[in-house]
């Protein structure tokens, strides 16, 4: 397969360029913060994850969120919002307001076999062989990857004692570099790789799927990269080993994304929201050292969002995402026992 021409996209940036882009940095004003806080007084007999936009109106903030929705798909693909009013809130209140912001952007999808749509990212201190262990519930460094949804959102409630910085890189910028320097390996990355079903993905009937790292559909670029599941598939006796060329190609993605000028490092502080378009942004986290006291430990809330203005995808993604049409509800993990 001959790789297409270089990608031309607003989602192409270096670390310095993203930091200076106006869509990267937002700060809620007093009126927007007040609008959110008022939701705490709204009586409603529903559980948080049953609430919709009509239950949680944000007439003023919704205008900014509409712009952010467009910027995630058509702009840099990475948005940081500061000033979320989490100080003094209990966890339920923080989850409610985070849910309110996020449902004005997209549709939350499940992140676990239990059907959780708001997922707590914190070190659960599972043992190394515990099947419940996932990268988000450890304190270890995470490698560059994308999540199984159009957009991933993070709300920081508490930071670790040390470390835990976020790092983001432009996937189409990585693509263009590989195309210029190693077009032979780009052709490898545009062929499907086997992904083994995640150990916690009990609602998924497929033992594995096949997905390319880079793809184009109706002129729309997409990147999908979760190396840990690719490598688990290669170790499965039912599936083929990675070829030397495939391993070299995966190494090159991580190497280019990890060059200092290619990724922006920052630290989410309490009250910081982060939204990333997974089709154009790679992200990772540095290792961290946590507080001993449970109530002081690092705690991030995560949402996976299916976006109404999303791009079309290669048909190969249907097995893992459920749908590939532009704007379709897709992504996430199917709840165990779901029909």
Structural account:
The protein is of the alpha+beta class and 339 residues long. It has one domain: Clavaminate synthase-like (Double-stranded beta-helix), CATH 3.60.130. The chain has nine helices and 17 strands. It has helices spanning 15-20, 30-38, 61-74, 91-103, 171-181, 183-189, 227-235, 244-257, 318-321; strands at residues 25-27, 78-82, 107-109, 119-121, 142-145, 151-158, 162-163, 166-170, 193-196, 208-211, 214-217, 220-223, 263-266, 273-277, 281-285, 288-289, 299-306. Strands 1, 2, 3, 4, 6, 14 and 17 form a seven-stranded mixed sheet that branches. The chain has a four-stranded antiparallel sheet with strand order 5-15-8-13. The chain has a two-stranded antiparallel ribbon with strand order 7-16. Helix 5 packs across helix 6. The longest helix has 14 residues, at 61-74. The two termini are 38 Å apart.
Jot down its keywords:
single chain; 339 residues; alpha+beta; Double-stranded beta-helix; seven-stranded mixed sheet; four-stranded antiparallel sheet; 9 helices; 26% helix
* Global morphology: globular
Domain tally: 1
Q: Element order, helices and strands?
A: HEHHEHEEEEEEHHEEEEHHEEEEEH
Largest sheet: 7 strands, mixed
CATH class membership: Alpha Beta
**Architecture in CATH?**
4-Layer Sandwich
| Percent helix | 25-40%
How far apart are the termini?
38 Å
Please write out the topology:
Blueprint: H1 15-20, E1 25-27, H2 30-38, H3 61-74, E2 78-82, H4 91-103, E3 107-109, E4 119-121, E5 142-145, E6 151-158, E7 162-163, E8 166-170, H5 171-181, H6 183-189, E9 193-196, E10 208-211, E11 214-217, E12 220-223, H7 227-235, H8 244-257, E13 263-266, E14 273-277, E15 281-285, E16 288-289, E17 299-306, H9 318-321
Parallel strand pairs: 1-2
Antiparallel strand pairs: 2-14, 3-17, 4-17, 5-15, 6-14, 6-17, 7-16, 8-13, 8-15, 9-10, 11-12
